Every structure is written in structure tokens, then in C-alpha cells.
Amino acid sequence: MEDQFIKAATLIGDATRAAIMWTLLDGRAFTATELSVAVNTSPQNMSMHLSKLLEADLLAVEKQGRHKYYRFSNKEVAYVVEAMANLIPKPDILSKKKVENYPPIKYCRTCYDHLAGKIGVALADSLVQQKIIIEKESAFEISTEGEKWFSDFGINLEDAQKQKRIFLKPCLDWSERRYHIAGSIGTLLLNKMLEQDWIRRTANSRAIIITGKGEKELFKNFKIVV
After folding, report:
1. How many CA atoms, within 13 angstroms, populate the side-chain half-sphere of residue 8?
2. What span, in angstroms and rounded, lies between the C-alpha atoms of 9 and 7?
């Protein structure tokens, strides 16, 4: 176990491979060429790094036509990468800054397949305060009232529980240092907000834009002031 841990840590600890893993937190699959551009390395060097990550089962590759697309081998890899970001030292706050000064990536972003940043944490806080989700010993559970709430919100919990992945879990947000919602429930919440045009993705970034409709709905449903 110790040897396996050291091997995994060494693989991710390499600067280029760490940059690859960070890029893939976008949630999309990338070609080797796209990753080369994103992390500023040569195609030959990228090929070597991707081979090592594939061999360690940290990445998976899918072929479509002439192209190969790389992504995390499973969602748990994404959770590990996000959790590692919490090791980044928190900057000293010299003066209180207004919410408007939040960088977009810290204010609202995707963390692989769920919502993160200040808004993602505020969403988790609201669901806990409304007793839709219950926090127990650093774990999340859905209450009886929450089951009805999710149904009314248009999310089928039975289908979510049948998925071969984590159902619901707290994910420590690297910029807020508090929990947001991960697992299949986090994914369904993100997708629902995208479908309803509350939020929109941005090109070449994990930052999320909140629409005018989203501002109203976030306040109506979660008392979140954008």
C-alpha cells in the first residue's frame, strides 16, 4: 500500500502531469494536442506523460474517428485532484474585500461535474440550513423532507442511487475551504441549472456565468444573493 501511494503521488507530483490533471478538472475530454497547448509542452513530451497516467489508471482514453480523447478514468480521481488543491497556502488577507472582487474562477466554477466556488458552497449551505441535506460527521445525507424537495425540483433520487458512482458527498472547496456538493446529486444539480439556463459555461474556462434568470431563481430557491 505504501509503495502504491508513493507511486501515485510521484506521478501526480510531476509539474507537467499535475498541469494535465488540473486541466482535466474542466470535466471535458481533451486530445493530446489540446493538452499540449494547455500545459505548454511538446507533443512528444505529452505522449510520454499521458502513457504514464494511462498505465497508472488515472486517465482513460476514447477514440472517435481520427482523434483520441483523454479524461479521468473515474470521478474519484477528480475529487482527489480538487482535494489536493486545498494544500495551497491560503493568502494572508490584508484588508477586507468586497464580493465583487472575487475572481470568476473562485466565485462560481465547475469542479469536474459539479458546482464549486463561492456559489457552490452557498448552495450546500442553503440545502443544509433548509434541512434538505443533513450534515453528519463530515458526510451528507438527504432528509425525508429533502426527498420531496428533490422530486419537486425535478431530480429523480432513485435513478441517481442506481448510478455506479458516489451518490452524495461533501467535497472540500479549494478556494472557500468549506464544503460544496459532489457525487451524482451534485452533477444532477449542476445539469438542472444548466438546462434551466440559470448558469452558463464559458469557453476555455471552468468559470460559470450566472444569468439574470439564475440570479432570481438562486435567491428564490436558496436565498443566495448574487
Report:
1. 12
2. 6
Which residue's C-alpha cell is 507530483? 13
What pTM does this model have? 0.73
Residue 97 pLDDT > 50, yes or no? no
- CA angle, residues 164, 168, 171, in degrees to nearest 5: 115
Residue from 96, 71, 101, 79 nearest 174 by CA: 79
Cα–Cα distance for residue pair 99/226, rounded to 1 Å: 9
Cα separation of 10 and 131, whole Å? 41
Cell, residue 217: 431563481
The model's confidence at residue 19, banded by pLDDT at 50, 70 and 90, is very high
> Tens digit of pLDDT for each residue in 23-72?
998 888 899 999 999 999 999 999 999 999 999 999 999 988 888 999 99
Cell digits of residue 33: 494536442
